[in-house]
């Protein structure tokens, strides 16, 4: 069924004179009759009794109108939905754990508080999975912390970050060569941006690393570190700002090694850029760069 056929049908339910309705709609009588016949063929039912030159609604037609008119009105309203509010819509967004937990909550809240007709589907997964879902068009926007990319992905810089090495051992030296560290390493799982950056920066030295545990969240890692001074981890500075300030965790600077990285925005190269899409990205960049 088409909206045009339904429109003609509802008009005829108000005025059974085909000639008059055709004139009001500025179409020929034959075009009106063909549209109604097409609708009836699709339904497999006659909706009108043909009485002379009139089309009188029959019992099946009355039932059809009763069951469908409210939906038709809603569909007609939907045609003008984005004319009245260009920012209405739902965005499907996924961010890596660091970005999701420590950067995005206020940004999501502030944007939604300003734009009442917008909603988000928010996911927090590792960067590798975000890239996979963007490639498969399952996400509108991805926020990642890895250098990995894909030929079908557009990648834009958001802001810079730094990984640091921390322990709860207050007596540990504050500067060390990595191969002199005898503590147990607690790292994020394979596929996380934090882990990938750390391992990539170490190069061949990563093979000698004593990785004792792999966990899926920074909270889990911090919990282990705080209870076990003989453990150590590489973690985003933004994730341990409070612990560093409270001196429950302590930074160890690795001699001759720095862990710099960028947080990036990604989306599919064929993604249509609506006003909502562009407005949120602009808001996101501005929020992270202030």
Automatic annotation (TrEMBL):
This is LysR family transcriptional regulator. Residues 1-58 form the HTH lysR-type domain. It holds the Pfam family LysR_substrate. It comes from Candidatus Marinarcus aquaticus. SUPFAM superfamilies: Periplasmic binding protein-like II (SSF53850), Winged helix' DNA-binding domain (SSF46785). PANTHER family: HTH-TYPE TRANSCRIPTIONAL REGULATOR, LYSR FAMILY TRANSCRIPTIONAL REGULATOR. The keyword DNA-binding applies. It comes from the Bacteria. Keywords: DNA-binding, Transcription, Transcription regulation. Belongs to the LysR transcriptional regulatory family. GO terms for molecular function: DNA-binding transcription factor activity; transcription cis-regulatory region binding.
